[in-house]
Recover the amino acids of this structure.
């Protein structure tokens, strides 16, 4: 698709022990693009994010970010790479012993030597961007799930990252919070010009905001396209996923060793 | 088949021995990693001071109260025994020596392990379970440097101070029972103590013991937290392991240190 790719997977394979999670994955994410990775639970979507963040290394192939192979970075280079990156975790992962203000200030204090006033201004700006400037003195335990996710988003963008990674940002949110987070992700991606990868299985909300979609199934890319192409796709797999059908190319039942009759001891009866 | 059943317990024993040695190796590497990542805890000392508050200051109540009661019991038991031999005057020396050499460092360490060690394990384990450590690492902040090392140093700093306070309170408890309650001569009580307690041999050696206990307990606590399975059951069993292992290590280490020191 894009020529100017910022993140690129080249024939990447990864597995735990004998179990292969990703097989020969190749994909590109352009500068300033918001791309969704969709697939069922356990399809290896989050593994993709962990490969980009350098938390795990590809067993085969390369993960290139701005032309540099993440898998070959040493600890120091990896930390430099991560300073340009923001990540929103599935349930926010806010530091429970720090206030909202200190949570958002955390990356700024750790990586810069700005004055107290400057840190304060920056934190309030980020909190304002997610619409929660009034919550600065609250503790994470006092926040609702949707608010915690927005604070985590403010923390993730604290240092104006070039890459944003979203791990299931819509999970467990009510419709209003979900719409708010989706709107924020879109607005922030446009405003900051970040290249963003969003792992999700919320099809409809994602298709409204992303520029491109990759579907992953069985560790491989099953389909890809712009939201319009996905909606118009005649692939049975995409159709099943987009319409949330219980059975189709992805089977309802987990394959069993024995037949059903065998499990109940009725074989040959 | 028969042979298999026969050797099963032996195999299990071998397996758990190998596991224990393996864990010891991992723990040693973890200690090395804490030491090499300690720059931040020393340069940004307020991080360590904050943990000293949680590990040390908040343990004051339990240390002070336990120390007082242990000293009072020592006073009662000591008086009972010593008076049989007509040497009740030596009560001050008995209370001070028992506390400074053994009871102070050991009991303070046991209390510290159950109060602060378990809290450290639970906190770090929960931070792991709720992806906080991972979030930190993704923000290019090393969790060993930012979370583990300050707690480790806080434990190492707090332990000897808590043991010293335990001793002071214990001696005061012994004084309350011996002098105020039973009515021994105050001058004899203190002068016996002064004559029999050596600063280097008794006081300093006792504090060196508690320094070793501090290192051992805090290392076990932070390691178990960092190594915990990131689930509710995993954190709970890691916390239990911290208390049990710490208690055993304190008592074993006490024997070894006593054998070398006294």
């Amino acid at each position: 698709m894009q020529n100017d790719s910022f993140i690129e997977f080249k024939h990447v394979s990864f597995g735990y022990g004998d179990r292969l999670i990703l097989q020969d994955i190749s994909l590109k994410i352009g500068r300033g693009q918001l791309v969704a990775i969709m697939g069922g639970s356990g399809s290896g979507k989050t593994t993709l994010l962990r490969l980009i963040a350098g938390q795990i290394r590809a067993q085969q192939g390369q993960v290139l970010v701005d032309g540099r192979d993440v898998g070959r970075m040493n600890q120091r280079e990896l930390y430099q790479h991560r300073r340009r990156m923001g990540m929103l975790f599935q349930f926010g992962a806010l530091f429970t012993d720090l206030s909202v203000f200190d949570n958002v200030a955390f990356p700024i204090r750790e990586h810069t030597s700005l004055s107290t006033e400057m840190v304060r201004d920056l934190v309030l700006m980020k909190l304002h961007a997610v619409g929660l400037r009034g919550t600065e003195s609250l503790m994470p335990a006092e926040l609702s799930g949707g608010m915690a996710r927005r604070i985590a988003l403010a923390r993730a963008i604290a240092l104006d990252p070039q890459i944003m990674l979203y791990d299931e940002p819509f999970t467990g949110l009510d419709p209003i919070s979900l719409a708010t987070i989706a709107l924020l992700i879109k607005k922030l991606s446009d405003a900051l010009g970040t290249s963003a990868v969003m792992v999700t299985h919320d099809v409809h909300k994602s298709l409204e905001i992303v520029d491109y979609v990759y579907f992953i199934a069985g560790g491989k890319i099953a389909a890809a396209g712009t939201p319009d192409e996905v909606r118009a796709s005649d692939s049975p797999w995409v159709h099943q996923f987009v319409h949330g059908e219980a059975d189709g190319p992805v089977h309802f039942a987990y394959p069993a060793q024995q037949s059903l009759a065998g499990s109940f001891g009725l074989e040959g009866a | 088949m028969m042979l298999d059943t026969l050797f099963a317990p032996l195999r299990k024993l071998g397996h758990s021995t190998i596991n224990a040695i393996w864990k010891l190796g991992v723990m040693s590497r973890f200690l090395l990693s804490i030491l090499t990542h300690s720059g931040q805890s020393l340069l940004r000392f307020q991080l360590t001071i904050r943990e000293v508050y949680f590990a040390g200051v908040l343990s004051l109540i339990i240390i002070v109260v336990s120390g007082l009661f242990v000293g009072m019991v020592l006073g009662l038991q000591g008086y009972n025994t010593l008076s049989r031999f007509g040497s009740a005057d030596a009560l001050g020396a008995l209370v001070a020596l028992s506390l400074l050499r053994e009871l102070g460092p050991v009991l303070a360490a046991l209390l510290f392990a159950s109060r602060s060690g378990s809290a450290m394990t639970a906190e770090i384990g929960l931070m792991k379970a709720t992806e906080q450590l991972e979030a930190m690492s993704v923000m290019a902040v090393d969790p060993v440097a930012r979370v583990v090392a300050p707690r480790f140093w806080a434990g190492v700093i707090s332990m000897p101070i808590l043991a010293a306070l335990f001793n002071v309170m214990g001696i005061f408890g012994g004084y309350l029972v011996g002098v105020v309650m039973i009515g021994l001569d105050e001058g004899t009580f203190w002068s016996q103590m002064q004559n029999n307690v050596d600063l280097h041999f008794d006081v300093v050696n006792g504090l060196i013991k508690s320094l070793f206990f501090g290192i051992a307990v805090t290392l076990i606590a932070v390691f178990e937290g960092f190594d915990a399975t990131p689930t509710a059951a995993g954190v709970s069993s890691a916390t239990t392991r911290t208390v049990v292992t710490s208690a055993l290590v304190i008592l074993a280490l006490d024997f070894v240190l006593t054998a070398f020191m006294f």
